[in-house]
Amino acid sequence: MKLSTIKIEGRETAAVAGPSGLVTLEQINRTEGTDWPSDLYELLRKGELDKLKVWYSNGGREKLAQMSAVPEKVAVFAPLYRHPRKIWGIGMNYVSDAAELDSISPDEEPVGFMKPDTSIIGPGDAIRIPEGSDHTTAEAELAIIIGKECRHITEEEAPGYVAGITTSLDMTEAAVHARNPRFLTRAKSYDTFFSYGPQLHTLEECPDILNTAVETVINGEVRHRNVISNMRFRPWFTVAFHSRVMTLLPGDIIITGTPGPVLIRAGDQVECRIGGFRPLINPVEG
Question: Which of 50, 97, 122, 138 is in Cβ range 3.0-4.6 Å of 78 for a Cys bridge?
């Protein structure tokens, strides 16, 4: 199942991808007599996603074809939601070649940082370069969306606590970080420095996640590309590891590192492309 949040008459509402386009949960409720939350964050927080998935797999997918839909080519996408409890990121997570994975020490641990929800923008929204900056970077990343509260889980258990994955762009004020590595969280916390969406794919849509490619693209040029299997800390390890640090809550977002950053300037257009997903595209403003 693929979910998005779209803008309709000034409102942001959750929708499911169907054969003819995006069907809002409001439309599904009217047709089916259900009461799914129309806000994607609330759908996760209230534990309703699994029930929606059961409906979808037991005939709901076919029913969507008979419902009023917004064609994807005219839909205006918003962030999946605007106020997660946590946005947690890890850095320096890819190796250039799978052979390098054998040389990683078993004692190595992820490098982490947090981002505030005030940094959130959605597809098509402008990334704003901070005044006086000459070194803002953007990084394409796979983002994990937590679906259920978890604490001290194992790597094998992790997929059962994940709602799905999505595309994201993580921006950094690299000059700030270069002054002192301890400034990493500050460098990543400016307004408009985190974009994600437009699609949340539940795990049934991602059967071969380790062979999925992530690309950082600027002005139509693929600048960096790598596959999930080349991560030092792969997605389910990452979820389990951080569940031993903090309680993970429905709607929490974990961004998993980038194949490489690009320097961005006003007038650029930057993208995150992940195999099988609608691209996440944001323009850059000064």
Answer: 122
pLDDT digit string, tens, across residues 19-51: 999 999 999 999 999 999 999 999 999 999 999
Say if CB 84 and CB 117 are below 8 A apart.
Answer: yes
Evaluate whether 37 touches 101 at the Cβ level (below 8 Å): no
Q: Which domains does the chain have, with CATH numbers?
A: 2-64 (no CATH), 87-285 (3.90.850.10)
Asked if residue 65 lies in contact with residue 53, where contact means CB atoms within 8 angstroms, the answer is no
Q: What are phi and psi of 209, to 5 degrees?
A: -60, -35
Determine phi and psi for 99, rounding to 5 degrees: -65, -25
Amino acid at 100: E
| Prediction pTM value | 0.96
Q: Which residues contact 181 (CB under 8 A, 6 or more apart)?
A: none
Residue 44's H or E segment, with its range, is helix 40-45
Q: How far apart are CA 218 and CA 271, in angstroms?
A: 6
Structural element, H or E, at residue 141: strand 136-146
Query: What percent of the chain has a predicted confidence (pLDDT) above 90?
Result: 92
